[in-house]
Prior knowledge:
The structure holds two protein chains of two kinds.
Chain A: E1 3-7, E2 10-14, E3 19-26, E4 32-38, E5 44-50, E6 56-58, E7 64-68, E8 73-78, E9 87-94, E10 103-104, E11 108-113
Parallel strand pairs in A: 2-11
Antiparallel strand pairs in A: 1-3, 3-8, 4-5, 4-9, 6-7, 7-8, 9-10, 9-11
Chain B: E1 3-7, E2 10-13, E3 19-26, E4 32-38, E5 44-52, E6 55-58, E7 65-70, E8 73-78, E9 87-94, E10 103-104, E11 108-112
Parallel strand pairs in B: 2-11
Antiparallel strand pairs in B: 1-3, 3-8, 4-5, 4-9, 5-6, 7-8, 9-10, 9-11
Amino acid sequence: xxxxxxxxxxxxxxxxxxxxxxxxxxxxxxxxxxxxxxxxxxxxxxxxxxxxxxxxxxxxxxxxxxxxxxxxxxxxxxxxxxxxxxxxxxxxxxxxxxxxxxxxxxxxxxxxxx
Amino acid sequence: xxxxxxxxxxxxxxxxxxxxxxxxxxxxxxxxxxxxxxxxxxxxxxxxxxxxxxxxxxxxxxxxxxxxxxxxxxxxxxxxxxxxxxxxxxxxxxxxxxxxxxxxxxxxxxxxx
Lengths: 114, 113
């Protein structure tokens, strides 16, 4: 079965600093990988997705992630943090098989200080 | 365009009372539908998913049940709520094809007292 592990439940950065949120996956077959963001008391919004095309994926709000098969990683980065990036971020994995559900990591809360 | 509606947005219920959370999707047909629960510090837990009417898979044994009476309607229920049922419940839909990107509803916050 597939799974994801997000390293670090809380990450704090200063405004303008690099954002790095870590995600490692486990899957017996090539996976599809996703990053979602959740603002307080809201649903989840898709940031970006990896579907076996380019390994460097660009998403909304200046975020990007790189799929590294050798490291089984899909870390999320943003060169310069903004106050509005403060939220909870979830990494998720699924397979290209009918009926396969999306499995989420436990989430990482990003705090941005001025 | 497709939209997903989830209600009620917030709910406070006593222990032992019943529960019904409803989710509907517009603008698509035969979607895959999902119920997730988010408890503090525990991420998102998949509760149920459905690939068609009356086709529902349960991921974890619990005090909850799900039904799909119509193609684009997904209902989460309980006959008797427990304190541990408190949490943020999220409904989502996906096409079930390709990358199966999920689109989420705004969520329902349940507090059981």
